[in-house]
Model the fold of this input.
Amino acid sequence: MPDRIRLDGKIAVVTGAAGVIGRATTELLAERGARIVAVDRKREDLEDAIKGLPASAEPLAVTADVSDEDEVADYVRAAVDRFGTIDVFYNNAGVEGEVRPITQYPLETFRRVLDVNVVGVAHAIEAVLPGMIARGRGHLVGLASVAGYRGFPWMISYSASKAALIAYLEALRPGLPRRGVTVTTVCPGFVRTQMCTSVPYQRPVKMIEPEEAARHLVRAVEKRPRNCIFPWSMRISLAILKYMPDRLFDRLMQWIGPKALHVEF
Done:
């Protein structure tokens, strides 16, 4: 396979396209020549997100809840009906859990987060993968998180969902290259989104802007690495956390929790 894929004319499906990361990524994909299928559950925000895209992107906006299997099948069908194929599926849609002490943690939140962040991705891949395999080409991109490598106690459902997503994509990956399909798992650092800015941290947390995140994500679509972790500081942090002894990690979380957040730990 070539080291870098040109996006001219490629059909890219982006879920969560009305969110700040999804919107910035959609705009950059279109700028690089991709034709866009933008998916989000908020119709008004979705229409606003695509109105500035160039005519060459031939943008198609589809309203759908990614946790609903029928709605996922509908947007995949709409994309194929419009363009005949899907070259890139980028799953950006996701929800965060609630920052609450463990004694008040609602199971309903846990179910909803898993439904969107894991089952929703599985619905979409189940819908787009047969076509990719039949054509012998395609690229799947899943937005995971460093929170999927170790369980962060103030992000219980989010950590669990991203851990499941990382394992799911990893399990899919080995059987696909000989069928022409590649898989990239994306783990960004802190991006200036509502999810990150709404966490009640006691001290300011350094965040990158959505436009910078989009540049990494589009580069991942063009180069198709196994993993895309950014920025560099997050790669270092992830390596440290991933291989940190369990007892040391537990003690670190017990120490950091009360100091990091303005909530009961």
